[in-house]
Amino acid sequence: MMLTNLKQLMFSLKMKRKKRERNNILLHGSNDICVELNRILWRKRHRIFSLVSFVSGCLILLLFAVSVFSPPPAANLLFLPPHSLVRKEIAAVESNAVFQVPTSGGDLDRGLWSTSRSKLYYGCSNASNKFLTADMKTYPNRYLLISTSGGLNQQRTGIVDSVVAAYILNATLVVPRLDQRSYWKDASGFAEIFNVDRFISSLSRDVKIIKELPLKGGQPWIPRRMAVPRKCNERCYQTRVLPVLTKKQAIELRKFDYRLSNRLETDLQKLRCRVNYHALTFTDPILDMGKLLVERMRMKAKHFIALHLRFEPDMLAFTGCYYGGGDKERRELGKIRRRWKALHASNPEKMRRQGRCPLTPEEIGLMLRALGFGSDVHIYVASGEVYGGEETLAPLKALFRNFHSKETIATEAELAPFSSFSSRMAALDYIVCDESDVFVSNNNGNMVRMIAGRRRYFGHKPTIRPNAKKLYKLFMARNNMTWEEFATKVQAFQVGFIGAPKEVKPGRGEFHENPTSCICETTGTETIQKETQEEDHENDNNGRDTAEVNDEQDPIEEDLDWIEDDYSDNIKDLPDTDSNVLTKQEQPEVEELFSD
Which intervals of the chain are annotated as region Disordered (predicted)? Predict the structure, then answer.
């Protein structure tokens, strides 16, 4: 019995031992599998971590390189309109860093504020010994009256040329009558804008001038009204006007603007210069206010730019140009354009391609930056109503933050005596633009021509006119080039368009813009003369296109740009006290409206 129990106990222990050994085998197998799985997972985690570390390191290095080598943005996108070209360029920079407008303009020592060659030339308008004086050639009872036309500067051309016309006709000139009925709606008389006493006394040796037409037989003298064609030369006046003047003794030439040829004998051209640059001055109140504006600009900076900006809705509508404003722009400007019934259908692309569209404020800003003017330069802007308002001006202000006008540097009380008269306000802008270190325009209108000629006469101060034909193509293609390429081409295209001596050949263009007969050359050193000859040769080679553009942008005599057809529609309700003296009905004549 005991033996049986012992066997059962031993068998039970043996079975437990086998079971324990079997469990140990299973346990060791499981441990081996877990160890192997852990080893595999660790290797994979290590590879993933290494890959993540490598990618993160590359991204950090890339961001570091961008932050170090990328220059700061040229302007803040938050302050630019959605359709702004400057905004688009900045966005392009952020994406591919190709065309970036820099904040600085570069080296301004390249003659942008002045030019050394200007010292070789000076204005000269004295009459020769062959020029007869007024007391020797003025006929008694022969009076010439003229009625000017257009804005202040167009009227100025008529006043200047009227003195020459009186000299050709051996007549006494009555102080010209200013245009008070046209688009500009300014009731100012001659003596309220110009110093009439200085005008008369300064020219007393050349032409006899009186303030009013004398009575005839105790009664008011009604002159015979007539018109002369544009570009009328000496022979034209002697054959068309003199016979009528001899018979009637007093005539009035109406709408007298650009009625005298650009090509006259030298003494007559010099007479033009004596009138324009010496005799015809503004009244003391206008001069004093203009001087104050200049002084305030000088207080802000040693040098400043004056920009004559013409971007009014009426002018844009008349030119027929298109500036990317979509259906809204076409609808608004098209409605204005329909005021002129005789205008042909507009061709914006052709106008732009030929350089006949004024540059936008943004394009002017890009041109100035490319020429070397940085964002710290102060700009005085002479302009009327700008189409699109502040949204249109925003890109220019983003490029040049020091943006001024007569309204911002003078008080309302200071401008009160002038603000109700467009011509007097234009006279203030004329003074500041004339006195500026650099004068810039976006157009080729009358004010630009008159100031350009004056700045040539008084020392060839830099006067930048856009080479619009070439710049148009450049603006269109600039997304395909770097800023450096763009700036280099702008500088090349503007050769011959910065007011340097001899950049325009004698006799080419409008005389008031290029008074070559009144520019004399000094005797310099041999070195200076050699440098001048070399520069002239370089300008001749680089500026052949300049002559072509100048021909295309010649003044209104050949191209009546920015003019108003059917002018009589605007004045038909106004009385015409002289209409009863006409022997035949006068036909309405094309008139320069946007003439400034």
Answer: 531-596
The DSSP line for 235-262 is HHIIIIIHHHHHHHSEEEE-S-SS-S-S
Secondary structure of 102-147 as H, E, C letters: CCCCCCHHHCCCCCHHHHHEEECCCCCCCCCCHHHHCCCCCEEEEE
Residue entry with tokens 């019995």: 1
What are the residues facing 591 on neighbouring strands?
A: 564
Give whole-number Cα distances, 45 to 41, 42, 50, 52, 313, in Å. 6, 5, 8, 10, 69
Quick check: 312 and 387 in contact, CB under 8 A?
Answer: yes
- In the block, which residue shows the tokens 């890109």? 395
Query: Which DSSP string corresponds to 156-187?
Result: HHHHHHHHHHHHHTT-EEEPPBPP-SSTT---
Structure tokens given for 553: 């942008």
Element (H, E) at 309: strand 304-309
User: CA–CA distance from 412 to each of 263, 384, 407, 417, 426 (Å)?
Assistant: 45, 17, 7, 10, 16
Question: Under a CB-based contact definition with an 8 Å cutoff, are residues 513 and 453 in contact?
Answer: yes
CA neighbor of 314 nearest in space, from 332, 288, 341: 332
CA dist 427 and 289 (Å) reads 10
Give the integer Cα–Cα distance in Å for 389 and 586.
Answer: 40
Nearest-5° Cα angle at 288, 286 to 290: 65
Distance of alpha carbon 23 from alpha carbon 8, whole angstroms:
23
Q: Which of 10-19, 132-141, 389-398 has the lowest mean pLDDT?
A: 10-19
Nearest to 211 by CA among 233, 230, 190, 232: 190
Which tokens go with 524?
């310099």
Long-range contacts of 79-88 (CB under 8 A, 24+ apart): 79/394, 79/398, 80/394, 80/395, 80/398, 81/391, 81/394, 81/395, 83/324, 83/325, 84/362, 84/394, 84/395, 85/362, 85/363, 85/366, 85/395, 86/362, 86/365, 86/366, 86/395, 86/398, 86/399, 87/395
Tokens of 400: 């040049």
State the virtual CA torsion across 77, 80, 81, 82 in degrees, nearest 10. -20
How many other CB atoms are found less than 10 A from the CB of residue 243? 10
In order of start, what are the domains of the chain with their CATH numbers? 114-121+282-310+357-531 (3.40.50), 132-280 (3.40.50)
Give the tens place of pLDDT for each residue, 319-366: 899 998 999 999 999 889 888 877 777 888 889 888 899 999 999 999
Shortest CA distance to 95 belongs to which of 78, 118, 121, 77?
77
DSSP designation for 209: E
Q: Which residue did the predictor score with more confidence, 570 or 114?
A: 114
Alpha carbon distance 371, 91 (integer Å): 23
